[in-house]
Amino acid sequence: MSKERCPWCEGTPIMLEYHDTEWGVPVHDDIHFFEKLILDGAQAGLSWLTILKKREGYRAAYRGFDPQVVARFGEKESAELLLNAGIVRNRAKIAASIGNARAFLKVQEEFGSFDAYVWRFVNGAPVQNRRRTMADFVASSAESDALSRDLLKRGFKFVGTTIIYAFMQAAGLVNDHLVTCHRHAVVARMR
């Protein structure tokens, strides 16, 4: 008997693996938060499958997603990233990722960690949605609107409310597994 899953992950092993092990699992590690910000920003206008296929390329190019290292990237590193076929070679997204690393460090300095900062937008616990069908999904929420506005105010780029809602889903700030999905109840117990 096969497990019931959210339909969006069906079709490719990489999407299935991502859905079954990572999507919706609450993140409390700043490196993982930074990775998710970079990848969700890179996804704008593209499929998530494209980004997952390039994830290892990003991991290498962005030095393990260490925001302290990325914040020091200059013109040389930007030029190298633009030539790197292992990532999305978009000048605006690359510039934003470097600027976002610098803004990320400022948030860590102010709040002690990005984790402490971001969880405030959901009152410290994942939002537990009870979606029954794919038609029930939304592209944003009051929480993603608020987080997006605050990130923009802090100088982040590629953090519109739709991108941030996807980030929140990926980082487990929101549990958007369908209630019929075998992962919904598992993720609901995580904090």
Tell me about this structure.
This protein is mainly alpha-helical and 191 residues long. The protein has one domain: Endonuclease III, domain 1 (Orthogonal Bundle), CATH 1.10.340. It has ten helices and two strands. The protein has a two-stranded parallel ribbon with strand order 1-2. α2 (30-43) packs antiparallel against α6 (91-111) and α2 packs across α9. The longest helix is centred in the middle third of the chain and has 21 residues, at 91-111. The model has no long low-confidence stretch (mean pLDDT 97).
Major β-sheet annotation? 2 strands, parallel
Output the radius of gyration: 16 Å
CATH superfamily membership, which one? Hypothetical protein, domain 2
Task: Quote the average pLDDT.
Answer: 97
Tally of DSSP helical segments: 10
Count of spatially separate domains: 1
Q: And the CATH topology?
A: Endonuclease III, domain 1
Task: Give the termini separation.
Answer: 29 Å
Assign the structural class, choosing from mainly alpha, mainly beta, alpha/beta, alpha+beta, or little secondary structure: mainly alpha
Spatial order of strands in the largest sheet: 1-2
Shape: globular
Q: What's the count of strands?
A: 2
Q: Which parts are unreliable, with pLDDT below 50 for 5 consecutive residues or more? A: none
Fraction in helix: 40-55%
